[in-house]
Amino acid sequence: MEADAVLAVQDLSIDFQTPNGTVHALRGVSLEVPRGSIVGIVGESGSGKSTLALAAMGLLPENAVVRGGAVRFDGQDVLTMPPAQLRDLRGRRLSMVFQDPMTSLNPVLSIGTQMVDIQYRDRTGAAEKRRKAAAILGRVGIPDPEQRLRRYPHEFSGGMRQRIAIAMGLLGNPALLIADEPTTALDVTLEAQIIHLLRELRREFRGSIMFISHNLGLIAELCDHVVILYAGEVVEHGTVHDIFHRPRHPYTEALLVCDPARIDEVRRELPTIPGDVPNLLRVPEGCVFAPRCPKVFERCRREPPADHPVGTTQSARCHLVTA
Amino acid sequence: MSAPPSEIAIGPPIAPLPAVSGGRLLRRVRSDPLGLLGLALVALVVFCGLFADWIAPYDPFKINVPAMFSAPSAAHIMGTDNLGRDIFSRILKGSQIALVVGVSSILISQVIGLALGLIAGYGPRWLDNALILVFDAVYSFPTVVLGAVLMAIVGASVHTLMFVVVVIQTPAYARLVRTATLAKKNSDFVLAERSLGAGPVRILVRHILPNIVGPLFIIGSMDIPAVITLEAGLTYLGLGLPPPAPSWGRILEEGYRFIRDAPWIVVAGGIPLIVTTLGFTFLGESLRDLLDPKLRRIV
Amino acid sequence: MLIYAAQRVGLALAICIVAMVMLFGATRLLPGDLATIMLGPRATPERVARLNEEMGLDRPLPVQIALFIGNAVQGDLGTDPLTERKVAVIIMENLPDTLILVATALGWSFLLGIPLGCFSAIRRNSFVDKFTGVLSVGTISLPSFVVGIYVALIFAVQLRLLPMRGAGESGQIGNQIAHLIMPSFAVGLGWVGYLARIVRASMLEVMGENHIRTARAFGLPESRVVSRYALRIAILPTLTLLALAIGGLLSSTVFAENIFVRPGLGSLIVNSAKLRNYPVLQSSVLVAVGIYISATIVTDMIVAWLDPRVRTAV
To answer: Which of A49, B122, B143, C232 could share a disulfide with A43, CB 3.0–4.6 Å?
Structure first.
């Protein structure tokens, strides 16, 4: 399986040093992104999804400490790679689309300049680079791309900017594109357009996508595999069919129940998961979801559950799952 | 003339001023070694200014021709000048002049600036625009040049010098007050009070003034070295306080004429200026973080 | 871009006019007949009449200003009552030295200040950073004339390394440069520290922004990230301050020209102020104001050119 995985996160644990103490953001996280597939990472705020994305790119902030594990891209650990080698990967074999289109592009350089800069490793001339940039801008749905290359980011709307960001991400034909909540900052219509765009692009683009979101509906539309992240741990993963039709972890079940898009009957109140995400300064003993789990029992509070496989494609970290 | 005036006093409008308390001030300064040094130096200068008449070993004005051009010695710590006057005593007296002129002119500028700023912020738009235009026009004169012109027109005296400082400093304070006033004027609770019938004076006094006084105080004290330097500079050029007032600028000016034969005069004249500017600046730096949270986050 | 330029120039002209009103208005406050005072000991009835005619001193203020502007546009800034020479000529003789001094001082401060600030930001809390920090704070507030005098004392009087007075022999570049070293140092020192601080703060802020993270995410080399992506934005505040710098530098050059006995606009202003030579004083002051305002416009234009967001904001 590992040979087929473009990205393999192995037992990754990351802490953040903050003025209030050490935050255990990721604990023993393992997942794989097989070649040519789209893997969705689902989690609420604070689940560690962005940390995971940044770790995969080797872009963790200064106060992050890797306590253990590895992030293998094409077999090589990104976290221990020499910086020059890592830099060589970025923008070419491995690229990222960030959450906020308003601040992720340089405001004083035209998008043409930025897109040509990314191709700095190529031996081709500037004209050829501009042509490639215009071509891919056209592909993501920017009208009149040759003219638009000369424009500046602030001259585009949020939705357009995110398309530009996706175009930049795909420019190097990467093996893995990490999309960190690319539609969260956009309104629903734009969101639908971006998802539609990604679906179209996957037919031509032979790389993998790691799609991070808190929106189950998007994940269901776009992804092949799903990883559920809660408070820094992977609590369940499987194919999209497994997760949406046969969820085994109580958190996954609760997420599905609470998803407003799936509610069939008319009721007065929307269902929620009671309680709050735990404070990661002090991680509870036992199962991390125990304080909020509707199916909790005594063992859950004492003993952290192991990953129990379900069939060949699914796995859940819960005491309730027996082989 | 010293380089840039306080960035906060002259420059683009800043965000609404945060509240400042004395306790926070002291705590902040104590934790910063440079700030402590600044505080010590400022205290030294203030002490000299207050007690100059008692500490000075000689009468600063007393001419003593036989002792002229004496190098520093036990009898005269900083030597004597071209008229035999004890330089150390003159320096001490000069600190008094510097502080009195500096502090009082800043106070006057702040009062006038407060009034103008409140009017500009609270009054009609055209008045605000007109005042801004006048302020910008005053800014467009390089400081010393403005000082030179005014002194030439009005004639050299202490009052003229203070007038010069007031003209130069007032726009800066007025701008600050104007910004704060504008910010508050449109805030929700002011609008609420107005709908309840509160008049402008009440709003000004109750809501705007209390927030401004603290920052104005801090900014004013940060401006003291600039004003003292301006006074010394103008006097050095011969366009400031007339002799025999022992302003530090005068000592420098007289000393410069004899720089080859009696270099100690010029050295002595420069020291108090350096001590004063460094002291106030280190102290001000320490305190300014309280005013500009953005800077604090970065540093 | 053009509209922005027009707006800035219009505003600047308005400020100029107000400055003129203030300046001319102030001189009219002098008691007694203005022309007689201006001419001082050389006042004769014919001269008084001629001066009144030329400068419109006995007419209302707006007329006086209009006359001045009308003459100035034709290159006539009045006549020096003491030497009977045209003020415009006198100013043109003295202006180049001042401009050279200001430019050299600016050059010093930018060449030293920007790299220091940049380096301090990249290697935060290193020895260089802390040292630069203290040095900056110290030099910012030191009076430039004290620095000038001390430098002159050490290098000219005690060590006899550098010349004390004057601008040097015309035609001899080396000699002129030797005469420039001390004055430009004295004038520029405060700004090295100031620039270093601004650049440091600005860089730190920019480097923390999301688009820098994006640039790194695409594997761009760090040197390019710093120079093309970060510094270009971080420099903008320093340029805005450039105009303010020129104003402060003009003040400092007045002192430098006095200490080092250099010819220049500053000396002209000081000497005419002492002698109450109002025609020369007025015109030189207005030239100084004009330079300052022009510097403001030019830097605003450069900022607008470098930061496209500014053009649309106005």
So the answer is: A49
